[in-house]
Amino acid sequence: MRLKDKVAIVTGAAAGIGLACAQRLASEGAKVVLSDVSVEKGEQAAEALQETGADAIFIACDVGDKAQVEALIAGSVAAFGRLDCVVANAGIVHACDFLELEEEDFDRVLRVNLKGVFLTGQAAARQMVAQGGGGTIINMSSVNAVMAIPSITPYVVAKGGVNQLTKTMSISLADKGIRVNGIGPGSIMTDVLKAVADNKEAMSKIMMRTPLGRVGEPEEIAKVAVFLASDDSSYVTGQTIYADGGRLALNYTMPAPE
Predict the structure, then answer these.
(1) Per the residue annotation, which of 155, 235, 242, 252 is the catalytic one?
(2) Where in this chain does the record put each Ketoreductase domain (predicted)?
(3) Domain parsing of the chain, residue ranges
(4) CA-CA distance, 208 to 18, in Å (whole number)?
């Protein structure tokens, strides 16, 4: 087990990629704190992990609220004694035509997707420095950090910021033994994508931009998270790994598989 007795926090862990990361970290021996604003789903997810024999708890947290983030870190340390890894995964999307985008919606997305990653990473790093021994921070980015979908402007802007935040955090914390990296998923079969999975036109558009000819699964992103959390990536910091089925490498569209 690559993460035996390590303590990891995963935000946005009630479903999708966050839940898959929590499950995979636990399978590698980590003691896992699942966190989300969806309390019922989060508690159920933690209980399901406990039933497999994992050390797992749930702590509710709105990552855009500094006091709640600090309480999450403190609660995790109170439960498990230390903190070794954080996966800052919590995020939201707001779809809207650019000319119709309201200021409050722009602010709301950046509050969670960018400010939340900053607050989570800073609070986690302070704990790691205080206890000694270093640690790992993993920020969930997206292929949309370097590409652009005009209907989700705040999301695209926030993810671009996450990439730069990952770089500056990695440099700032390198001498503390804390490695900071990002993961940039492409099209992953989360609840958002499942909602259009039966729409042949929508799925065809995705496949035309994905050289591997399929969408990814949350577990495939979780495997990258385990790599970045473990000593297998001991000389990797300041990087964003794009698990995107080849999407960023493709200049033009390609025929969708039948």
Answers:
(1) 155
(2) 6-186
(3) 7-188+219-242
(4) 27
What is the full DSSP assignment across 33-48? EEEES-HHHHHHHHHH
CB 73 within 8 A of CB 84: no
Instruction: Give whole-number Cα distances, 167 to 84, 138, 200, in Å.
Output: 19, 11, 38
Cβ proximity of 45 and 34 under 8 Å: yes
Specify the amino acid at residue 14: A
Query: Would you state the structure tokens that stand for residue 158, as one six-digit string?
Result: 């926030």
94-147 pLDDT, tens digit per residue, is: 999 999 999 999 999 999 999 999 999 999 999 999 999 999 999 999 999 999
User: Is residue 252 among the annotated active site residues?
Assistant: no
**Closest among 222, 134, 228 to 185, alpha carbons compared:** 222
DSSP one-letter code for 125: H
In whole angstroms, give the CA distance from residue 73 to residue 123. Answer: 7
Domain covering 7-188+219-242 in this structure, CATH number: 3.40.50.720
Q: Which residue carries 């990473």 as its tokens?
A: 121
- Of 3, 56, 11, the residue nearest 28 (C-alpha): 3
Angle at 181 between CA 132 and CA 159, to 5 degrees: 130
CB atoms < 10 A from the CB of 33, how many?
A: 28
Work out the burial of residue 172: count CB atoms within 10 Å of its CB; fewer than 13 is exposed, 13-18 middle, 19 or more buried. Answer: middle
| Sign of the CA dihedral running 100, 102, 103, 107 | negative
Q: How far apart are CA 84 and CA 63, in angstroms?
A: 19
Give the span between the Cα atoms of 142 and 163, in whole angstroms.
9
pLDDT tens, 150-187?
A: 999 999 999 999 999 999 999 999 999 999 999 999 99
**Is 162 strand, coil or helix?**
helix
